[in-house]
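Sequence in, structure out.
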Amino acid sequence: MLVVTSETVAGHRVSQTLGQCFGVVVRSRGIGGNIMAGLRSIVGGEITEYTQMLEEARRHAVDRMVQNATLMGANAIIMMRFDSSEIGQTMSEIVAYGTAVVLAPVPA
């Protein structure tokens, strides 16, 4: 499955637009991770516990989006984007979304 953030793909044309597809992940850092992150925030710098959690959440959201697009019959996702928000003070929601399409190669 080709996933791009652009509207077009070089050498291909959109032969069919299937609609929006998305993947959602909600994650919460455990109490231990929150304590460590809190201590790190005192001295400043990157909070690696949260960075790792968000990287994993983005990967899972993309995987779910690809599964959704595959079920729709797509071979590509164009205009892919991420969105994120907080739920309460301890949870993060990550959404990967885009347009599920069928791409066809353009004859040379």
